[in-house]
Amino acid sequence: MVNIGVLISGTGTNLQAIIDGIKLGKIPGKIRLVISNKEDAYGLVRCKKENIESLFIDPKGYDNISYCRRLMEEFKKRDVELIVLAGFMRILSEEFVQAYRNRIINIHPSLIPSFSGKGYYGERVHQAVLDYGVKYTGATVHFVDEGADTGPIILQEVVIVDEDDTVETLREKVLRVEHKILVEAVSLYCQNKLIVKGRKVRIDRE
Ligand code: GRF
Questions:
Q1: Are both 128 and 72 inside the same structural domain?
Q2: Residues 184, 15, 24, 137: is their CA dihedral positive or negative?
Q3: Which end of the chain offers a freer environment for a tag, N or C, measured as fewer CB atoms within 10 Å?
Q4: Are 27 and 85 in the same domain?
Q5: Could you give the CA distance from residue 91 to residue 40 in angstroms, rounded to a whole number?
Q6: Residue 206 above 90 pLDDT?
Q7: DSSP string, 88-138
Q8: Are residues 87 and 133 in the same domain?
């Protein structure tokens, strides 16, 4: 049973997908702690409803390195092995990434490396997709490295961009795919089926 820690900043629909995935027996893991950097993140309400320990840790008063040290402290206390960034809107320190090398999973709402990296988050991603006029977008789950959305890719899934799509309709379509591949990636990790070699992630499908 893998101890999972989750970092959130907002509505927490990806967090909810993991919670539901565990309940449905798809993920051999347990969420030990959820931390939000936003006090009003609805994801914290989800934790209360699901009886999952959660903390709001205010970044005010910390620089990023000491904030990340505080996060690591809380996760260490609960023997967390896998960290999931579920709509988390901060960049992790190098120290944090190194301490949890290939044990931090992030979900991004595009087909990385398109529409990813600095400044590409939330609805801005979908707006850029529409502005560019691509025919396909999608979602990507990847391990976190020192860069922004640059770590080894675990899973991706395509979403067709329809002519009448808006930011809202695209966000909805992509979010559904995010939930699906995030649950699959966390499940594969907990089953020890993800083998990382450099930039490549091989999935042991036996
Ligand atoms: C999602 O679009 C996710 O891709 C991005 O944060 C957004 C909010 O997700 N990383 P959630 O509903 O808070 O899980």
A1: no
A2: negative
A3: C
A4: yes
A5: 19
A6: no
A7: --SPPPHHHHHHTTT-EEEEESS-TTTT-STT--THHHHHHHHHHT-SEEE
A8: no
pLDDT digits (tens, 9 = 90+) for 45-86: 999 999 999 999 999 999 999 999 999 999 999 999 999 999
pLDDT at res. 163: 97
Name the closest-CA residue to atom 12, ligand 1. 13
Shared-domain flag, residues 54 and 6? yes
Q: How many domains does the chain have?
A: 2
Q: Whose CA is nearest to atom 5 of ligand 1?
A: 87
pLDDT in tens, 118-159: 999 999 999 999 999 999 999 999 999 999 999 999 999 999
Question: pLDDT band at 30, cuts 50/70/90?
Answer: very high
Residue ranges making up the domain that contains 28: 1-100
CATH number at residue 63: 3.40.50.170
My answer on whether 7 and 31 are in the same domain is yes
pLDDT on residue 58: 98
Instruction: For residue 142, indicate whether it is catalytic.
Output: no
